[in-house]
Amino acid sequence: MTLSLREIVGSRFSHLTVISAYRDEKSRIKCLTQCDCGRQKECFYTNLKAGRTRSCGHLEREYRESCIEMTGQQFGELTVLGKTMHRKEGCIVWQCRCSCGEEIYVSRRQLIRGYVTACPHHKLKQLIGQRFNELIVLKFSENGEEVFCRCSCGKQLWVGKGNLLRGHTKSCGHLALADNLPRVDGVVTCALRRKMPKNNTSGVTGISQTRDGRWAAYLTFKGTRHSLGLFDDKEEAVRQRKNAERKYFEPYLQKEQSQKDAS
Ligand SMILES: [Zn+2]
Ligand SMILES: [Zn+2]
Ligand SMILES: [Zn+2]
Is pLDDT of 214 > 80? Predict the structure, then answer.
């Protein structure tokens, strides 16, 4: 045997590069090769030399696969649009469209084995626009760990996804704050006072002008918006609002006062 094993290492045969070589018990040269697709394969040197072994097997698999049509097939959220020239680990990569509209590239193996059934952030995307207690999801971070939310109070903030989904984070913090505010029968009384209009000019709480120039009066109490009617006259709308405040708010404010007086 004149051929040195060291000479073989590094030589290339079609898609395979020899990374190590040794003689087996029958003195045949066996090679460990690295395929262009990333896989390793052990084979006889004679087969490499003769061109009988040209890849890890991905060429044959590709050929078999190329005869299989997957276009139109459905895998979870994905619909296969068509074959591409790309290969991943020796498998044909298919262009797919997710039910959310995003197009991604997935290999046959990933599809068949169910490794990929939707676009990368599909579940997260479903959260956008959804409400979790006081928070509405607007977008999510690159790594998908955090979501950007708008709180019912108007404040916008990043929240950990897990905390949001598990209900650990319910608001920007204003809820936790409200929990410590004095209440009368469960109603935060200082919030009622804040809702009370200070004057009769424009910008009065609970009064808004409609497109046809009329005035709508409303009052929000215990999470419910009570419509108080539409009025041609703004003064009248304000009067109705004040009446409603008296009806809904006063009992709580009076009770608070009497509690204070008593203590
Ligand atoms: Zn290969
Ligand atoms: Zn998707
Ligand atoms: Zn808030």
Answer: yes
- Assess contact for 160 and 197: CB atoms under 8 A: no
pLDDT for residue 231 is more than 50 = yes
Q: Which ligand does the CA of 87 lie closest to?
A: 1
Residue type for position 32: L
| 75-100 mean pLDDT | 92
CA of 21 to the centre of ligand 1 (A): 19
Token code pair at residue 207: 């009064």
Average pLDDT, integer, range 77-102:
92
Prediction pTM value: 0.46
Ligand 1 centroid, distance to 37 Cα (angstroms) = 4
What pLDDT does 201 receive?
Answer: 45
Q: Which ligand has its closest atom nearest to the C-alpha of 53?
A: 1
Q: How far is the CA of 127 from the centre of ligand 2 (A)?
A: 12
Q: How many Cβ atoms are within 10 Å of 255's Cβ, its own excluded?
A: 14
216: β partners? 208, 230
Q: Nearest CA to 140 among 153, 155, 158?
A: 158
Residue 59: nearest ligand to its CA?
1
> CB–CB of 76/114 below 8 Å?
yes
First to last CA, the chain: 108
Rounded distance, CA 136 to CA 164, Å?
10
Give the model's confidence band at 150: pLDDT under 50 very low, under 70 low, under 90 confident, else very high: very high
Residue 88, judged by CB atoms within 10 A of its CB (0-12, 13-18, 19+), counts as middle
